[in-house]
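Hi,

I'm pasting everything inline rather than attaching a file, because the server keeps stripping attachments. The sequence lines come first, and each chain or strand is labelled.
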Amino acid sequence: MKSETMKTVDSSSRHSSWRIWENPIFRRYCQSRLRFHGLGLALLISVLMAGFLFFMSRSLGTSRAHLSIVDGERSALIPLFIYQALILFVLGTAQVSGGMTAEADEGVIDYQRLIPMSPLSKVLGYLFGLPIREYLMFLITMPFTGWALWRGEVAAHVWIPLYAVFITTALTYHLTGLVTGTVVRNRRWAFLVSIGLVFCLYTVVPQMAKFGLVFFKYLTVTPVFQESLPGILPRSAGAIVATSQKLAPEVKFFDLALPEAVFTVFCQGGLILTFIVMLCRKWRRSESLLLNKVWATGFFGWVQILLLGNALPLIEPGNLFPSREISRLILDWSGWSPKASEGVAMSGIYGLATLLLLFTMTKIITPSAEIQIRGWRRARKQGESSLAILADAATAFGWVIVMALAGGGGWYLFTQALVESRWFPGHSVPLHVLGFFSVALLSGGLGFHAVLEANGGRTVGLVVILVGVLPLMIGSILSASSDRLIPAATWIFGISPASAPIYAATSLLSISELPVNLARSVPRAFYFWQGIHLIVAIYLIGRLRSARKLIASRAGR
Amino acid sequence: METTPAIDIRYLRVDYGNFVAVDDLTLQVPAGEVFGLVGPNGAGKTSTFRVLTTLMEPTYGEVILSGVDVLEDIEMARRIVGYMPDLAPVPSDLKVGEFLEFHAAAHGLGTRAQRRDRVAECLEEVALADQRDHWCKALSRGQTQRVVLAKTLLHRPSILILDEPASGLDPLARRDLRQALRKLAATGATVFVSSHILSELAEMCSSLCVMNRGRLLASGTAEEVRDQLGRNEKTLTVSLLTRHQDAAVWLKSQEAVHDLQVVGEQLVFGFTGNDDGQADLMEGLIRLGARMRAFEEKRSSFEEILVDVAETNRRA
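And the predicted assembly:
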């Protein structure tokens, strides 16, 4: 029997990750989510809604707006597209994150961990299996879209990129849901977080794009949708949009001019790859950190390159400035030039986004005490006297420094290109600003890292609330109460490391034009709190060293 | 020649923050045995099993399953282990047959027809062949346990790890489970099974070990475990027709006798000696001239021993 057992085990074939139709997890969800009753109702609702949108738009177009047949057919495309986005982006993402958490809730996820499939096969099985009903709901709306595209005479080069990006965007969101469902243990929270993220992508993120962080809008379908608008709108409206788009910025990445769809797929591709790596690591070992240190640092650098590559070419033509967008809307831009405050705000926001990304990456690669102990004990077992530098258990200290310096460099390059552009003649950004930017990111990032690695997530949560958020709240209340209290509020704002990038931009840039009551307090608060942050960070690093030594000695016992 | 143990646990330690769930556990389970792990709730049984099945990385220690280090070769370890977790969850959106066929496919068990046959075979083994088309969520507790046992058997693992498989089962189902485990052991598989009910394991296991608060207290056969736990004493009751007082005095003078009580014609006392000593005691009483009418020997039940051990440890 023993030999028979082993023979059976050895003969079990590996599942090819890419033959998704043979993937047992995919098939399992096809079975459970495509049962007649549930599927029938979902498809009925979907087809009714799509039919309603199609015929209603078409009728309104041809009968009420007296559009031609071709234009009438086209008028159904956008409502159908929005409905399809709702199905795949919202329902699909919710299903993925909720389904993943449900597996953990029921406890059956342990079975899936034990089945001998590669982590990638498991990820792909869930990625395509969990939202299978939503894919079918989407597909059943496609005949209406197909008809509208055909009779509306929409060119293939318009709709193919649009729907290609639609699918990559859906995959990005579904992977977000999968990561959320894997990391967040509570089903309701996983659902809310993933839907919240998708919601933010279409509400908050576009605002960041307006302030120079153009890259973020490529995480949505919006740029390609906007690019496709002239081709899918009724021809008269499409012509107007096409005219206005001639004035709009084209996608440039450093010196390359790329089609919107290609650049969007490029941006989303990096994110998709990173999500898949995260999930594979979690499937291989549930205790693993989401990313290894090299990948996390590389990802940080990649985002910096995308941010810069996107933003820098838009500075000279002025398209990066938010006020340019407004002037374009009111068609009055003959005498337009950016305000100095815009430049300062954009630099500050770039720094803030970099700091937040640094915190996120630091959180991902910083080992908990348990991971450190396990790592030390394994190292001792293997006769090693130290941890491998890339091991999960190794300190993230050096990597945080690398990211902070890279972030400081990116922030400096962005600010330099902005301030030394033709829009602010006579201004320059001296090299010492690079030092201040780096110190602002280093003190914040290393302080965060040192508390996280030495004291754990709960202490960090408390510190974030008390030091990061509370001063901003108190400062806001004070500054809202009276103008006289604004200088005091400035000092209180400065306690929070989150204010450092904004304060750095306002204090260090020659284009900065602070009002009189802030002209003295902001720079002083900046230098003072930077000094304090730096001292605290050094102290915390010292404590971290001791904490790590203690863990190493505990592990040796 | 020494054979490789099917399960070899060395210095295993599992910490949750500052709480030590498993503390320095070293244990070998020979191949082909039904080995029991018993301990009260919180003893560290589930943590030990989760490490064995690669679901959890230990804080420290080594676990070798049939020569495979679970920390170094997770994939291989997962192939040779079948795991049935505590409370044996089942997916609410699948039918019994679908659930099992999914796992058969995930383990790469041959063609679709072969998988169906294997599922039928396993359902037959757990006496649930008629439940194939029933929803998993509609099964009773005992049926659910058996479905998960069938899932665990699907890929014919050489090591079966069953966490509290008998919890929630009625006596009939427990008997069926015992029989199923014995059948499995007879086919050469190693079964490592946990329970907080010692008598239950004593009935179904060839060897067992006792854990409490993360530590291994004893291991071996049921008798050896009694010995190691120091709970091998008996309560003897001797009914005499004559010379009660003399017999009581004489018994008190014996080293292995304690807590003697005289209740009417009966002498009730604790005895810590072995079988030879017990025979000598009877002989001594007869030589004393006491006429013995009846003799009764009573040992502590496994449950009493476990409660006693747990209480002692808690006080410590």
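Residues 399-556 of chain A form one domain.

If the labels don't parse on your end, tell me and I'll reformat.
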